[in-house]
């Protein structure tokens, strides 16, 4: 089983990024999927989750209206579109499906 995140990087405040999470080795389309993040010195935080079909999503209050979670079950890929990024969004972002976790991709928001 592999979950591989990509798309992180350094972006200025107000900028945008799209994270991807490519899944292999498990039945991606059978799992509710989630994005988490962890900033230095802070606990891991649930950012967003999406139902199996993509028809239902939930967001942390801190990202509501700025981030959008989506999935493509045909491509076994999860996405996180992040707009209006703030310095406080700086963190290591992880995807999760069931008991499976990716290794994370770093997002740094700084001028």
Mean pLDDT: 97
- Element string (H = helix, E = strand): EEEEEEEEEEE
Tell me the Rg in angstroms.
13 Å
The total beta strand count reads 11
Strand-pairing-aware structural class: mainly beta
Uncertain regions spanning at least 5 consecutive residues: none
- Sheet of most strands: 7 strands, mixed
Q: What share of residues is helical?
A: under 10%
Question: What is the straight-line distance between the termini?
Answer: 37 Å
The fraction of residues assigned to DSSP E strands is over 45%
Sum up the overall morphology in one term: globular
The count of helical stretches stands at 0
Summary tags:
111 residues, mainly beta, seven-stranded mixed beta sheet, four-stranded antiparallel beta sheet, globular
Description:
The protein is mostly beta strands and 111 residues long. 0% of the residues lie in helices and 51% in strands. The strands form 2 sheets. Strands 2, 4, 5, 6, 9, 10 and 11 form a 7-stranded mixed beta sheet that branches. Strands 1-3-8-7 form a 4-stranded antiparallel beta sheet, with no helix packed on it. It is globular, with a radius of gyration of 13 Å. The termini are far apart. The mean pLDDT is 97.
């Amino acid at each position: 089983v592999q979950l591989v995140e990509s798309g992180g990087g350094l972006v200025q405040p107000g900028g945008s990024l799209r994270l991807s999470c490519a899944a292999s080795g498990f039945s991606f389309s059978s799992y509710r999927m989630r994005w988490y993040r962890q900033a230095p010195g802070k606990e891991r935080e649930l950012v967003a989750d999406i139902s199996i079909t993509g028809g239902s999503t939930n967001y942390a209050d801190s990202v509501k209206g700025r981030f959008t979670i989506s999935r493509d079950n045909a491509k076994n890929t999860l996405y996180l579109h992040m707009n209006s990024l703030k310095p406080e969004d700086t963190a290591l972002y992880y995807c999760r499906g069931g008991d499976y976790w990716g290794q994370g991709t770093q997002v740094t928001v700084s001028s």
